[in-house]
């Protein structure tokens, strides 16, 4: 099966790398950003182009959500299978006379950070059973965790991931801002952060909650509000309000 | 040195366990909750009492912030060293004719979850150098990471920990609420969560940010807002507002 990846960002790079590492050769990596394509091409030994899209059986579109529709129109081959990799888009966003699908890896990707691809859940949606089998077999060469998922379910998977990953990372960024301002090394907090995360493999997060809000400790809550301002203060108030609500505190 | 721990909660239990595991015997564990004291006493082989506080050189108070002051008054021995374990209280909260100090372990404790005590940072504040040395030596038998810290600094350490631990755990709880409602197993998200945390040991959290807000993807942001309500919707809006502000997005 001739496979082409379209895009040169974090998802394109890591998918291409995962395929290559597992013996699946790619016919081409196609995109607009020649510099990034060149780097990926050189590292993974895959032909690239910014001009002419290779003829293929499977095209995997790894571009930002807002570009998926436009990019999908450049694929003119009939009878191809085309997949996007977005958590929030329906497969019908793809515009063309080909079979449409979604191939969604639930992970956060940065080019500079190695990943264990085996652990990444893949969620797949296709138009028919044959395509489902094709994409499931392909993903299973990379990952131990491959599932079918409707667009409806995928929307909620993506939303959950925004809370559990994107927002968590932003809390780390705001936390570091606070500790940096006091010249407290952020490394001090890594054991605490690791424990916070390890805990939820064993205990329900709701049962693992600690801190001033769940203790309803007004003195500390007021003290902290005095130390904060702007966005961090807003986060502080909103999170504590939500914690109090979850535990039915006054 | 005769040492007594006062309290029977998560911090009391884990400190008692860390001491015992490292060959430091405790003279007594003292508190109000006989059932909990009995359990700890039985597991760690430490005498307990709810009635008569043992005569000691060092008392470590491990009770909730709001009880520290009251509990500190029951220690009538002069020339003792008394420490509280709170991140947000000054050592002067302790009321009595003894030497006052703070002995703050930066970690989240749950009784049912084992911990690697070696990695826990301890922040110590005392009235004089001799007490500083006593508590530093004691903490160093448990942990590799023992530091002096003023009350001013400790307040910010605690505040940073609330963002990086308590709020992060609450995001997990809200995330699980969303996935539970759709019957999506929360286990799917554990590799993503682990990666989110591993990343920040290597990349600045600010540089590691992903998700719809930092991409300024209005379509997804609006879609997600339609899927949410109440506290989760408030969190969604507040976090995205803060992300946009940090990256100077419109």
Automatic annotation (TrEMBL), chains A, B:
Stated name of the protein: DUF2520 domain-containing protein
Species this protein is from: Chryseobacterium turcicum
Any Pfam family: DUF2520
Domain Pyrroline-5-carboxylate reductase catalytic N-terminal as annotated: residue spans: 4-75
Domain DUF2520: 120-242
